[in-house]
Amino acid sequence: MAPFGLMFSGVCLLKKSFSLFSHASSLTRFVNVIPAVKSLTTIAGAPPKRPLNGYMRFVKQQQPLVVREYPDVKAVDVIRKIAQQWRTLTADQKQPFQQASVVAREQFKVDMQRYQSQLTPAQAAALKQERRRRLAKRKAIRRKRELNSLGKPKRPRSSFNIFMAEHFEESRGTTTQGKMKMLREDWTKLSTSQKQRAVTFLLLRSGFRLATLP
């Protein structure tokens, strides 16, 4: 006769399998399942991972079901379908996912404090510097997107870039780096007047008319 602990574990596993199967049949039943919250422990000295928000938890659980239902749909369209499902959910249906995210964030704070307490002063300073670098990068990307949305004019191409784009295919060299090297050598051999005439000819052939050239 199997030990009681082993029998109890088997019953729990069987019960969990039936529960997941029954909830996968419809979205309304599915959203009542609260995603399991795993403890964010450090692995090989790495910092704990930031937990997913409520929406991303929903995406993670819905994605296999949508892919199974629409096997020929592209990944980006799968995400669109899941996003549409999320928008149709009520506040009560979203609540389990959002609550799980709240619990995970609290655990994340505990794990992060434990992780930071184990760092040396040099490691803590390096971690702080890396965080500032990531924030600055995100800020720059966000700023660039805002400027593009406002119709920021593109930076004009230099004379050499125009020359390189026109002659790249016919350039000597078998690799991209080799072609660029040969083009730069050819460009440096040209005089200022030759560079201006070459770029003027290329622009006029492309339909541009410029009064002055750099």
Question: What would you say this structure looks like, in words?
Answer:
Residues 48-116 form the HMG box domain. Keywords: DNA-binding, Nucleus. This is HMG box domain-containing protein. The chain has 214 residues and is mostly helical. Among the domains are: 26-118, Orthogonal Bundle (DNA Binding (I), subunit A), CATH 1.10.30.10; 159-205. Helices cover 69% and strands 0% of the residues. It contains nine helices and no strands. The longest helix has 29 residues, at 121-149.
Outline of the structure:
This protein has 214 residues and is mostly helical. The chain is built from nine helices and no strands.
How are the SSEs placed, and which strands pair?
Layout: H1 4-23, H2 27-30, H3 54-69, H4 75-88, H5 91-117, H6 121-149, H7 159-167, H8 176-189, H9 192-205
Number of strands: 0
Q: What about the largest sheet?
A: none
The value of Rg in angstroms is 29 Å
Compressed to H and E, one letter per element, the order equals HHHHHHHHH
DSSP helical segment count: 9
Q: Averaged pLDDT, please?
A: 76
Overall shape: it is elongated
C-alpha termini separation: 90 Å
Question: What class do helices, strands and sheet pairing give?
Answer: mainly alpha
CATH topology type of one domain: DNA Binding (I), subunit A
How much of the sequence is in beta strands? Answer: under 5%
CATH level 1 class label of one domain: Mainly Alpha
Low-confidence stretches: 1-44, 209-214
Give the name of the CATH architecture of one domain: Orthogonal Bundle
Q: Give the fraction of residues assigned to helices.
A: 55-70%
Look at the structure and name the CATH superfamily of one domain.
Answer: High mobility group box domain
